[in-house]
């Protein structure tokens, strides 16, 4: 059995798409996943499954959330190896160490396409910055995500190919999620 981390996009933000974590744990159990647990209220869960395809798990979770909890929610499902890769490939380890709550990882269901970000004048937003990973974008917002327009630009739907699910977590959450996944 493999342990997985599920990241739900855009729930419990500003009162939108409210999903209680107890309901999410119950849904995961009803879907046949073992030992479901959640982290924070922002749609982070871990569970075990015999299924070996994270994309199938994400699709089943999306379908379950729609039918049982009444919300259309994009989901990403990651393995511990995925999270280790994200952590090991961190292009700005000094920023993550400085303030993990201001360092974000936007997880994507497909590789980022840098040409979709070419119109952003990065120098205009310094010291805020971002870098591309394999299937993620790392972003540094030293004064906070709401203190810069760059966060809005990086998060725009048009920046991602049609159908790509994107959801961001701060560095502290990323590392806590891996610890929970491996506990």
Features:
183 residues, alpha+beta, Alpha-Beta Plaits, 2 domains, four-stranded antiparallel β-sheet, 6 helices
Low-confidence stretches: none
Rg: 16 Å
The ordered string of helix (H) and strand (E) elements is EHEEHEHHEEEHEH
Helical content class: 25-40%
Query: Tally of extended strands?
Result: 8
The chain-level mean pLDDT equals 93
Strand content: 15-25%
Coarse morphology: globular
Number of helices: 6
- Number of self-contained structural domains: 2
Specify the structural class: alpha+beta
| Major pleated sheet | 4 strands, antiparallel
- Separation of termini? 14 Å
Largest sheet, spatial ordering of strands: 2-3-1-4
Q: What layout of secondary structure does this protein have?
A:
Layout: E1 2-8, H1 21-30, E2 34-39, E3 44-49, H2 54-69, E4 75-79, H3 80-88, H4 93-98, E5 103-108, E6 129-132, E7 136-140, H5 150-155, E8 166-170, H6 171-182
Antiparallel strand pairs: 1-3, 1-4, 2-3, 5-7, 5-8, 6-7
Helix pairs in contact: 1-2, 3-6
Structure description:
With 183 residues, this protein is of the alpha+beta class. It folds into two domains: 2-81, SP0830-like domains (Alpha-Beta Plaits, 2-Layer Sandwich), CATH 3.30.70; 86-171. It is 32% helix and 24% strand. It has helices at residues 21-30, 54-69, 80-88, 93-98, 150-155, 171-182, and strands spanning 2-8, 34-39, 44-49, 75-79, 103-108, 129-132, 136-140, 166-170. Strands 2-3-1-4 form a four-stranded antiparallel β-sheet, with helices on both faces. β2 and β3 form a beta hairpin.
């Amino acid at each position: 059995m493999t342990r997985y981390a599920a990241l739900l996009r855009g729930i419990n933000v500003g009162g939108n798409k409210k999903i209680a974590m107890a309901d999410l744990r119950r849904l995961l159990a009803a879907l046949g996943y073992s030992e479901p647990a959640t982290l924070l209220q922002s749609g982070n869960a871990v569970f075990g499954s015999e299924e070996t395809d994270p994309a199938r798990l994400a699709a089943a979770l999306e379908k379950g959330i729609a039918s049982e909890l009444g919300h259309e929610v994009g989901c990403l499902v990651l393995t511990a190896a995925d999270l280790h890769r994200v952590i090991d490939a961190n292009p700005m380890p000094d920023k993550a160490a400085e303030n993990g709550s201001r360092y974000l990882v936007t997880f994507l269901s497909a590789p980022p396409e840098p040409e979709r970000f070419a119109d952003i004048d990065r120098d205009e937003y310094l010291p805020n910055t971002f870098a591309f990973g394999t299937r993620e974008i790392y972003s540094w917002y030293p004064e906070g995500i709401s203190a810069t327009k760059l966060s809005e630009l990086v998060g725009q739907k048009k920046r991602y190919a049609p159908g790509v699910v994107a959801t961001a977590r701060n560095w502290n959450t990323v590392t806590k999620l891996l610890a929970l996944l491996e506990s």
